[in-house]
Amino acid sequence: MENLSWEHYKIKIKLMVHRFYKDHEGWFIDLPEFIEKGLGTKGNLAMVLGADTFLDRLADGKSEVTLQLGEHEEEGIDYDGVFDKFGFSLPESKLEKVGHPIQWGGDYIERNLKHQIWLCPVTIYVFGGDYPDKIYYKKLC
């Protein structure tokens, strides 16, 4: 019998595709099931504190953008970039200004562009239980 290492048993989160849209209130991740399950409101899905300006950049004047996301680099995918987690913060005063009801979140920086973003706990829902150390992304449309 082949001697398998622990690496063979780790579960990788699959690549996922998420749509982000912009309306008169700002940018949001499109997660209707989050709201339907009673886990939060549209306000919880707001992309704020750098994530909004990053989506503006990717959307190139459009009101939506679809991204392929993953926490591991997958062979055969030419990613547009990667965000590295560098901490956690409580930007409470800034969040009150934009009406975001969550305070604590993960701080990330895009490796090549040096663009900083803050991601709320919805990130834990999206990635299945934790803030990932890295978030790889590829713009699909």
Which structural category fits the helices and strands? alpha+beta
Low-confidence stretches: 1-12
Helix content: 10-25%
Distance between the termini: 46 Å
Number of domains: 1
What series of H and E elements makes up the topology? EEHEHEEHEEHE
Radius of gyration: 16 Å
Strand adjacency order, main sheet: 3-2-1-4-8-5-6-7
Structure write-up:
- The model is unreliable at 1-12 (pLDDT under 50).
- This protein is an alpha+beta fold.
- It has four helices and eight strands, in the order ββαβαββαββαβ.
- The chain has one domain.
- The chain has an eight-stranded antiparallel sheet, with helices on one face.
- 18% of the residues lie in helices and 33% in strands.
